Amino acid sequence: MINKLKRNPDVVLAIAAAIVLPIIFEGDSKIWVAVSFGVFIVAFGRKIWVAIVGKLDERATNIQKEIEDAQHLREEAQSLLADYEAKRIEAEAEAEKIIEQAHNEALRESARAKEDLENMLKRRSELAAQRIKHAEEEALAAVRQEAATLAVNAAAIIINEGLTESQSENLVTNSIKSIRERLH
Question: Does the global pTM surpass 0.70?
Answer without folding.
Answer: no
